[in-house]
Amino acid sequence: MDHFRLALVGLGRAGQFHLQSIRQLAQLELGYVIDADQGLAAQTATAHGCPGSNDFSLALSDPTLHGVIIATPTGAHYSQILQALEAGKAVFTEKPLGETLKQIRECYALAEKVERPLMVGFNRRFDPTFSSLAAQVVAGSIGRPMLVRITSRDSPLPTLEYLKTSHGIFHDCIVHDLDMLRFITREDPVEVYAVGSNFVPEIQAINDLDNVLVTLKYKSGLLATIDVNRLATYGYDQRIEAFGDKGMLQAENRSAASTVLSNAEGVGRPKIEHSFPSRYREAYVEELRAFARTLQVPSQCPITEQDVCTSHQLCDAAQQSYREQKPIKIELPMQ
Ligand SMILES: NC(=O)c1ccc[n+]([C@@H]2O[C@H](COP(=O)([O-])OP(=O)(O)OC[C@H]3O[C@@H](n4cnc5c(N)ncnc54)[C@H](O)[C@@H]3O)[C@@H](O)[C@H]2O)c1
Questions:
Q1: N or C: which end of the chain has fewer CB within 10 A?
Q2: Domains of the chain, each with CATH number or no CATH
C-alpha cells in the first residue's frame, strides 16, 4: 500500500505547516481536520475539502483512516497518542511526545502492542542543510569532532498563551537542539551544565527562561554548546558549527533572496527567514514523507524510542543543572 488517509488534530501554527506539507505529498490524503475550536475546524475543512470537527473520536472511528498527525498543545499529546493507538491508528506527533519518561515509554509500549508506528517530529533532522552537515561529520569530513556549537534563537516571540502551555524552554525548544547534537555526533554526553536568565518580563512571570546556554562534555573529548533565546529581533536564527582536527563545517542562516547590496554605507543582505514555517519548510515535508515510508515499512521509523527517551532525559538533566546551579553527570540510559 502506498496511499494513506490521515487526520490532522490541532490546526494552530504547527497544524498549518502540516497542512501545507500534506498537500505536497501524493502518498498522503487529508481525511479529517480536528480542532477544539469548532469554527477553525469548519473553516479549515472547507478550505481543504475534507470533514472537520472538534471531536477526535469521529476520525478515530473511521476504519479507512490509517493514521493521525497530532499538533495540539504539548499537554494533550500523551492522551491523544494513546487514544489513537488504541483505535489502531499510526501516529505522527509533534514534539515533545510526553511530559515524563514514563509517559513516553507507555506510548511506545502500546504502539508495539497494537503494531502501529509512532513517530515524533524532530523536523530539524530532515532539514537539507543540517542533514548534510551531520552526514559530513559522520563521514569524517572534519576529522575528529572537537566542538559543536548550535545557535537556536526563536522569532517571533510566541504568544503568552502558547508559552504557558509549552512546558518550558528546555522541553519546548532545547529538546530540538539536544536531538540535533545526537544526530550530528552519534554520541551521548557524559556531563551537562546549563545557565539561564530572563529578559522578557512576561516569561519571568510564568517562571520560565528566555535566554539559556547549555554546555556538554563527551567521553571522546568533544565539547558542545547550545545557545537558545526566545526572541531574535532580526529573524529566526538557526546556525550550527562543527569543528574538528581536519576542518570545520558551518550551517548558516537562510534568506528568501541572496542579493547583496554594496554601497557607501557598507554591505547589506536581505533579512534572514522570519520564522520556523519558512525556515524549515522542506524539513516539514520530508518528515511527513519519512512518516509515509514508515507507514509502509514500520521497522524503518527514522526516529526511535531511544532517540525520544534520550533527548527527554538530556532535557531533564539540563533543567536540573539550571535549577541546582551545578554540572550534572549523565549515565545513559538513565532510569
Ligand atoms: N516542530 C516544530 O517546528 C514546531 C513548531 C511549533 C510548534 N510545535 C509543537 O506543536 C504543538 C502545537 O503548537 P502550536 O504552536 O501549533 O500551538 P497553537 O496554540 O498555535 O495551536 C494549537 C491548536 O490546537 C488546538 N487544540 C487545543 N487543545 C486541543 C485538543 N485537546 N484537541 C484538539 N485541538 C486542540 C487549539 O485550538 C489550536 O488551534 C506543540 O506541542 C509544539 O511544541 C512544533
A1: C
A2: 4-120 (3.40.50.720), 124-283+310-329 (3.30.360.10)
- Alpha carbon distance 218, 224 (integer Å): 8
Pocket test for ligand 1, best of 34, 53, 72 (most atoms within 8 A of CB): 72
Residues for the chain: how many in total? Answer: 335
Q: What are phi and psi of 249, to 5 degrees?
A: -120, 140
The answer for residues whose C-beta is within 8 angstroms of residue 285's C-beta and 6 or more apart is 20, 21, 24, 25
Q: What is the pLDDT of residue 221?
A: 98
Distances (CA, A) of 128 to 132, 142, 281, 287: 6, 19, 10, 11
pTM above 0.85, yes or no: yes
Whole-Å CA distances, 20 to 8, 24, 281, 290: 12, 7, 9, 16
Q: φ and ψ at 303, to 5 degrees?
A: -115, 115
Ligand 1 contact via 72 beta carbon (within 6 Å): yes
205-261 per-position pLDDT tens digit: 999 999 999 999 999 999 999 999 999 999 999 999 999 999 999 999 999 999 999
The torsion angles phi and psi of 190, rounded to 5 degrees, stand at -105, -15
- Is ligand 1 within 6 A of the CB of residue 36? yes
> pLDDT tens digits for 73-104?
999 999 999 999 999 999 999 999 999 999 99
State if residue 37 touches ligand 1 by the CB under 6 angstroms criterion. yes
